[in-house]
Design brief:
Layout: H1 3-19, E1 26-30, H2 54-67, E2 71-75, H3 89-99, E3 103-108, E4 121-125, H4 130-137, H5 141-149, E5 156-162, H6 170-179, E6 183-190, H7 204-219, H8 231-236, E7 246-250, E8 253-256, H9 273-282, H10 286-299
Parallel strand pairs: 1-2, 1-7, 2-3, 3-4, 4-5, 5-6
Antiparallel strand pairs: 7-8
Helix pairs in contact: 2-3, 6-7, 9-10
């Protein structure tokens, strides 16, 4: 991370903690909900199939920038499907950098060739070893791993949503992240149970078991892009929600924290590690502050 970026985020954090501000710093643009997969745990794919045009996305990026957002994510659907004429996801990332966003990341299912060195991080969904990943996402594991090995940059971070199907494969994903070319780290979420996927949600005991595995992997020097100080809050769902410092914009609609905020009762069952980490950070939790500083400086 550049020194200028670090100082910007430090000032933002100090102001937010001291004055209890709710200004956003992290924003997500949904470029499309079209996806080539139909994963068992996903409730937001292929609802409209609309590919939002560049002019609209550019305007939404400007809206977020004007709100103070400086960490930008592009999400789908599947982001690498996005097209507007000859323009691709790469054009969006380059434009975001030009506009002044300090960190620009994208999320992908990894089934398309990965040539996006301009992104700070590419969060790539890997949901277990071959067997359990394929059970969740279809027969895609080998394609994804081939694309990872052939990627043009080492800016990939595996992104695992832990659920009933793959909860025993946390260690496998950690080891794969550690030993695979072009992978910088691995990041986790617990499954957030939309009404149609409630059967995949973990119990408190299962969450605790997964966190113990992740902590052991950290001890073994696996590059985990999460904060273990947040684990007790994630296990008990005792962290405050929503996260006012994060916003999502989709087709002109801005949602605080994420799209799931519109589902009654879902915030209380949130499984997103970053939501716990950010809400605790901006409440002034000293252990979280220290751990986030060292973690972000290591991986971004």
């Amino acid at each position: 991370m550049k020194l200028s970026s670090f100082l910007y985020f430090a000032r933002f954090g100090i102001r937010t903690v001291l004055f209890r501000k709710k200004d956003p710093v992290l924003g997500t643009v949904i470029v499309t909900d079209r996806c080539n997969l139909h994963c068992k745990h996903c409730s937001v794919n292929n609802i409209t199939g609309v590919m939002h045009p560049y002019s609209q996305i550019r305007g939404e990026m400007q809206t977020l920038y004007d709100m103070g957002v400086r960490i930008l994510f592009f999400c789908g659907g599947e982001t690498f499907l996005w097209r507007d004429g000859d323009m691709t996801l790469r054009d969006l990332v380059i434009e975001a950098k030009r506009m002044g966003f300090l960190i620009v990341n994208t999320v992908t299912n990894g089934t398309f060739p990965i040539d996006l060195p301009e992104a700070d991080l590419i969060l790539l969904s890997l949901d277990g070893d071959r067997q359990r990943h394929n059970e969740v996402r279809g027969d895609t594991y080998d394609t994804i791993m081939e694309n990872v090995r052939n990627a043009t940059s080492d800016n990939i971070c595996f992104y695992m949503a832990i659920n009933k199907i793959n909860r025993d494969a946390v260690r496998d994903v950690c080891i794969t992240a550690r030993d695979t070319k072009n992978v910088r780290a691995v990041s986790f979420n617990f499954h957030t149970p939309y009404p149609d996927t409630r059967d995949l949600a973990l119990t408190m005991e299962e969450k605790a078991q997964c966190c113990e595995v992740i902590k052991q992997m950290m001890k073994e020097k696996v590059p985990v892009f999460n904060l273990k100080s947040a684990f007790p809050y994630l296990i008990n769902n005792s962290f405050p929600t929503p996260c006012y410092q994060c916003v999502v914009i989709e087709n002109g609609k801005i949602s605080t924290c994420g799209r799931c905020i519109d589902v009654p009762g879902l915030c209380e069952e949130c499984g997103y590690f970053f939501v716990a980490e950010y809400t605790l950070l901006f409440r002034g939790n000293l252990r979280i502050i220290f751990e986030m500083l060292t973690t972000y400086l290591r991986f971004i």
